[in-house]
Amino acid sequence: MKVPDRVLVVGGVAAGMSAASQIRRRHPKSRVTVFERGNYISYGACGMPYNIEDPEREIEDLVVLTAEHAREKRGIDLRLRHEAKSLDLENQTLTVVDHDSGKEKHEAFDALVIATGARAVRLPLKGFDLPGVWVLRDLSDGAAIKNALKDGPKNAVIVGAGYIGMEMAHVLTERGLSVTVFEKLPQLLPGWHEETVAMIAETLSSHGVEFHTGATVMGAEAGSDGRVAAVHTEDGRFDADLVLVAVGVRPNVELATTGGLRIGDTGAIWVNQQQQTSHESVWSAGDCAEAYHRVLRRNTWFPLGTTANKQGRIAGANVLGLNQRFPGIVGTCGFMVFDLEVARSGLGEEEAKREGFDPVAVTIRQRSRAHGYPGGVPIQVQLVADRETGLLLGGEFAGREGAALRSNTLATALASHMTVADLQSLDLVYAPPFASVWDPVLVAANQLIKKVS
Questions:
Q1: pLDDT tens per residue, the chain (453 residues)?
Q2: 3-class SS of residue 108
Q3: Residue numbers annotated as active site
Q4: Which of 2, 218, 249, 382 is deepest in the core (most CB within 10 A)?
Q5: DSSP letter (8 states) at residue 4
C-alpha cells in the first residue's frame, strides 16, 4: 500500500487528534490537516462535571493538547472553526466551511479519518429552547453551565438519570442548588441491576436529591426575565432556574451519509477492526463509529473517551498501511455520585437474556478490607454468567471504597473469555489494608459457580 501524502481528519478531540498524531509520528512526511468545528481540541470531556463542581478551576484546565502545540510541535495543520459539510468519495474531496470567513472550500485527500463524535439529544418540548436549559457534551457546554452558576440559581431540574444525570445531581447539590431528577423509565440508571440502583437511590436521598421515575416531562415555562423558571411534568410544576437535559447522545454520522458510507445497525458508522469504513480510503474512530464487542462478538456502539483514543491510534496507523487491529471492548464504565463509586463491565442480566444467553447472577456484599483492619466498608458485587457454559458475561460494583477499580478485574476476565471457574482461581492481591483473603470479586465467583452447570 502506498503511504498517502494528503490526509484529512474531521474532528479534533480524542479520536481525531490521536489519529493525526499517530500519522505524523510514524510518517512525518505525510501532510495531515485536522478540521475541528469548535474552539477546542483534545480535552477531557468526562472531567467536566468535576470541574464544574470547583468554582476556582478554569474550564480550560481540561484541555490536554493546545492548538499551538499541535501545530508547532506535532506539525499538524489544525484548522479550528472549520466544519466538514459533505463528502465526495468519487473525487475524494471534502467540502469544508470556514465559520470565521463564511467561505466554502473543497479539500482533496488521499486518505480520510472521520472522527465527528456524538451530540447530546435535545428534547423537542415547549420551552426547552429557553435560556437556562442546557446540555453537557462539549467543552463549550461545560463553560456555559459553569458561567451560569455564577448567577446563583437556586433550583435545578435534571431530565435523565444516566451517568451524566447522576454526576450532575451530585455536582449541582454541592454547588448549593436544590436538585430534582426526572427519568421517564421505571428506574434510575436504566439497564442497571436493581440492587445497584437501590444503593444509588439511597445515596441521592441522603443528600437531599429528589427523584421521580416513570415520569414524563411535558415542557418548561419562562419567568419575567425570559429565562427558564419552571418545568411541567405529569407530577406537577417544579421551580427550575437551571435545567439540564441528559437523556443520551447520538452519533454524528451526517458527513458519512453524504458520501454513502455504510451505517451500522446501531446507527453509528460501520467499521471493521482496522477502523476502516466501507470505503478503502476512509477510516472512522471514536463516538461516531461502532466498536467490536468481545462478549457479543459483533459490532456495538459504546461511546467513551478511552475507546475513542484507542480507535484513533489504530485508524492513524492503518492509514499508513500498518494493518493494526482494534481487539474490541467489553463495555466498561464507571462514575461517582457523592461518595458512592459505581462501575460495570460486560452485560447485565436482562441484556444477556435479550442476547440469547441463559444468564444466572449473584449479588454479594463483602468488606473492602480485611476483618479487624480499620476503615473497611461494604462493597456490593453483582456477577452474571451463562448457565450452561459458565462463561462470564458481566457484572456491577458499588461501594464507598475500592469498588470502581475492581471492575478492571472483571473487564480483563471478560476480554479473555474467562469462565466463573477461571475467575474463582485468580491470584488476586491479599493484604489487610486492601482486601481480605477472599476479595469481594472472589466471594461473588464462589457463589456464582454454584449456579452454573
A1: 688 999 999 999 999 999 999 999 999 999 999 999 999 999 999 999 999 999 999 999 999 999 999 999 999 999 999 999 999 999 999 999 999 999 999 999 999 999 999 999 999 999 999 999 999 999 999 999 999 999 999 999 999 999 999 999 999 999 999 999 999 999 999 999 999 999 999 999 999 999 999 999 999 999 999 999 999 999 899 999 999 999 999 999 999 999 999 999 999 999 999 999 999 999 999 999 999 999 999 999 999 999 999 999 999 999 999 999 999 999 999 999 999 999 999 999 999 999 999 999 999 999 999 988 998 999 999 999 999 999 999 999 999 999 999 999 999 999 999 999 999 999 999 999 999 999 999 999 999 999 998
A2: strand
A3: 46
A4: 382
A5: P
Taking CB atoms within 8 Å and a gap of at least 24, the contacts of 54-59 are 55/146, 55/149, 55/150, 55/175, 59/139, 59/142, 59/143, 59/146
Domains identified in the chain and CATH numbers: 6-119+250-319 (3.50.50.60), 122-247 (3.50.50.60), 339-448 (3.50.50.60)
3-state secondary structure (DSSP) of residue 68: helix
